[in-house]
Input
Amino acid sequence: MPLTASNPDRRHDLDWIRVGAFFLLILYHVGMFYVPWDWHVKSPHPVEALELAMFLTNPWRLTLLFLVSGAATRFMADKVTVGKLTGARIARLLPPLLFAMVVIVPPQSYYQIVEYAAAHPGSSLTVDNFWVRYITASGHWCTPEGCLITPTWNHMWFVAYLLFYTLVLAGLLLVWRRLGAHLQAAAERVLRGPGLILWPILFLGLLRATLYPRFGETHALVGDHYVHAVSFSAFLLGFGLAKSEALRQRLIAARWPAMVLAIAGYLGWATYAYVYRNDTPIPPEWLRPIMRFVQATDAWCSIAAILGFGARHLNRGGPVLRYLTLGVFPFYLVHQTLIVVMAHHLAKLGLPQPLEALILIVFTFAGCFATYEIVRRVPGVRILFGLKGQPAAEASRPPVFA
Output
């Protein structure tokens, strides 16, 4: 089969999807404050019903981001040498990762310790000389549930993994320069007809049934085999499908059936996860493997539907998209710290919970935009937030959102 020609230089639909996925991630992390799951800080009034909303994006949001990141890497890889690609991605990802671990992430650990100590009066945990102890890994912040190891990357694990995958890809490109074209041809050959839906579901379901029970999700890079299997595969798929007009058209054609299957998968998997949360009550053993594939159906069909509807309706660029495309990385860097710090202090005010949540969402987005507007104007600081060294002329001022 001949390799498909690669014509487009950019996919506006994938840019819009990337922006939307990051914004959903911000809302998801706001929800983590309220849902009764472990997190850095917690509302004194958890909302169990919120779990059902959290399950709506839980299976696919980060897999989608890795796929879109792989697509963006393809456009860059086809324009520059492997050496320039590697250098550009290291310059874009490594300084923000290190800066975040040293400056942006520490408040998250600080308030995590503060809240644990407040909830356990007999605890010996303290935040004396916190930053020095954090940065020198001498904190010894241990509880019966485990120890807080610092420095840590918390939500920045995504950036660490993306950098790692890019370096692996660069190594592959050194020995297989036409990797993107061959991945594209392979994807077009396999993902046709029912296979567009069936094969990714089977692949994700098998990973969920085999690797997840054994390794879980750690985000520690080393030993995180299940997450690597899913995320690196999505990254490579994005690298392959980025320039494929055939796959774009197939996803457009499959968008409605994919959405119906995604809704069905969500209803089944979310109901199971909600009823048997924390294994109380304990689900029957025969049901577990079935639900692994139901979860995979939810994950892939949601991604396929988003890609299909995006390809059909999100094909316009413009100043708003340029502005947001540049802004989402700084947004990602600061959003979780903004949420943790503000949520901890808002919880002390005794506000009605809906009002509290609204304030938290509005001020988190406002803080993200304010951070972006400040850092993008300072050449020496831009690189720490994943922006190029000099302000882009087309984004010298924010667009009018109207």
User: Anything to note?
Assistant: The beta strands are 141-143, 146-148.
